[in-house]
Amino acid sequence: MATQVRGAARRAQLLDQLVELLLAEGFAHLTLDEIAGRLRCSKSTLYTLASSKEQLVRAATVHYFRAATERVERAVGEATGAHARIRAYLEAVGEQLRPASLQFMTDLAQSDSARPVYERNTEIAAGRVRELITDGVESGEFRDVHAAFVADVTTATMVRIQRRQVAEATGLDDARAYRELAALVTTGLAT
């Protein structure tokens, strides 16, 4: 039992280190040998995480988005009121994306194994934004708006931020762009 716990802890530690490496540098240019060298482990150890480089990248992407979602939801849970909750959500998403380099986002967009994880996470984010807006409308904190439309527009902007298109167009870093988006959305929803 203790061996299994240590093994699970080691795998989680490796995934954390892998996520850090991939976020900083991207992954398309890395080989399994380079990844193993950078993580100071053997390729056979990497194969305990996934059966190929593509699946390793996918596993790391799932790990990254799962941990980010937990931190975002914790921030939302600490906020009181509809305005604070949607602001907390958008700002926390921005904060979680802060370590993702342009190379990581470019590689992610081009990866057949990891891109679906990213796309699914964006779909979930759109649903969560819609839920937060609907809750605010129902509680009377937000004016009566079409929640799905506002969520769709917000999500489209989130995708542009994640793809660094907003940074290119405005010069805003991701965290600042999310703060501005949160201010725009909450101001637009105010009664």
From TrEMBL:
Pfam families: TetR_N. Keywords: DNA-binding, Transcription, Transcription regulation. Residues 31-50 bind DNA. The keyword DNA-binding applies. Signal peptide: none annotated. The keyword DNA-binding applies. It comes from the Bacteria. InterPro entries: Homeodomain-like_sf (IPR009057), HTH-type_TetR-like_transc_reg (IPR050109), HTH_TetR (IPR001647), Tet_transcr_reg_TetR-rel_C_sf (IPR036271). Residues 8-68 form the HTH tetR-type domain. SUPFAM superfamilies: Homeodomain-like, Tetracyclin repressor-like, C-terminal domain. This is TetR/AcrR family transcriptional regulator.
